[in-house]
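Minutes, project check-in

Agenda point 3 was the complex the collaborators sent over. CS summarized: two entities, 558 residues total, and the question is how they sit relative to each other. Sequences were read into the notes so everyone works from the same version.
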Amino acid sequence: MAENQSSVVSAKNLGLTFQTNDGPVNALTGVNLEVRKGDFVSFIGPSGCGKTTFLRVIADLERATEGQILVNGTTPEDARKNRSYGYVFQAAALYPWRTIEKNIALPLEIMGYSKDEQKKRIEHTLSLVNLSGFGKKYPWQLSGGMQQRASIARALAFDADLLLMDEPFGALDEIVRDHLNQQLLELWARTNKTICFVTHSIPEAVYLSTKIVVMSPRPGRVTDVIESTLPKERPLDIRETPEFLAIAHRVREGLKAGHSYDD
Amino acid sequence: MTTLRTKVWPILAVLVVIIAAWYAAALIMNRTLAVEEAARKGEVLTTGAMWLKSYSMDKPLLPAPHQIVKEIWNSTATMSITSKRSLVYHAWITLSATLLGFALGTALGIALAVGIVHNRAMDKSMMPWVIASQTIPIMAIAPMLIVVLNAIGISGLLPKALISTYLSFFPVVVGMVKGLRSPEIIQLDLMHTYHASRTQVFWKLRFPAAIPFLFASLKVGIAISLIGAIVGELPTGAVAGLGARLLSGSYYGQTIQIWAALFVSSIVAGLLVFIVGGIERLVYRMMGARPEATA
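CS then shared the predicted structure for the full assembly.
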């Protein structure tokens, strides 16, 4: 039971079938997964493997059609209503008519935090993502990387223990991405959150994760779950160590095994 | 200096062409009248005198621009604004109906759009009726509306304003439905993850996202509100308002008076659209829009 208590996401035989005009599409099938408190779990696989769909099921943005899933020990719907996760989308999705600090205040306003508390949390989260001093700027005045950091700050503002990130750095160039990956690891170490992170970059997944979930399409399923042996402290040049390359190799093998390079 | 070159000169150039064409047309259209009048009086006109006469008739077919300007000047600046012959007085009568109708139309348009976006039944049922309402010629509806309202004791400003409302709610509904639906799925999903209520989604996302659509609609709405108010004055034999001036001008063949009223109404329409545009720029600036995006 002690193990169950620290389980943040627990999926048993989870499946999801979309009914489309071209007939049913099997987006996810037979997914079994445990995410424990403090884990950094990456979901990697080609398009159509259901990695984003799985994240959306956790977030109650999609409903599973088979099997069972618990988030913080409750249904995804209750977890959402308890505001127990923060979600970071592929695009920053900042509201253009709000300043950065007002964007971060958005969830706080909705959840009914007092003005003083809002102010405190805005300052705190801005410093967590290294954007102190940019609060009064409008989104268009910031670079793409800074906008995405602001959207992470927005997801952190109400201090949910679980952070769901859907290819948050996918649209950014590699230099910015490296930098943000490093910052994300620091943030994770400092805040002790549980992070579920969708990506299609092998180096990104290996660099960030304590656990890598390799997925493959048609039907979307999990082909391998790799527990990382890398230490928690990870400088960028860890990516040239044999240990790192071995894990990356195993991920690549897992992707191949899922025939995901077929087309 | 660049605004002078890029904005003022092109407009002035077109204006000069229009005025030149106008004088030419006035000469062609009024010449026959001038010659006939001279013949009745047994006069023989030189070419120069014929020109002068064509541009200075009391009831010309097409008044020359300077005659219209003079008439506008005489009926605005040189006259007390409470006088029944003052165009300021008539313009104010029409303007007050326009503004009331515009306010009601905007409110109705927004209310309908909110209903259509939030209620499935309204979404499925309302839009065809909204569109059908605009396919009926306003000239057909206006007299009936005024007669019916008169019969139940409503007269004066409100019936005219309601015709403005009838015209101006339409662009607002269409624009606002599109605007309230303009947030991307990702932004709506974000609200869903916060477990936001529908009211919160409306005020924090849908409404601000709809503002640019609203202003585009308001610019159309204010101009047709004015038309609605003028049309409302035509079929009822109204004694005051720009529409009444147009009507009495046409009864008595006072073409200069008709054109003066037309000019004033288009100046008022221009000013109204300009004011809405100014408010739009102000609101955009308050909403932190990129400076060049508002220009």
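Noted in discussion: Residues 2-62 of chain B form one domain.
Follow-up: revisit at the next meeting once the mutant set is ready.
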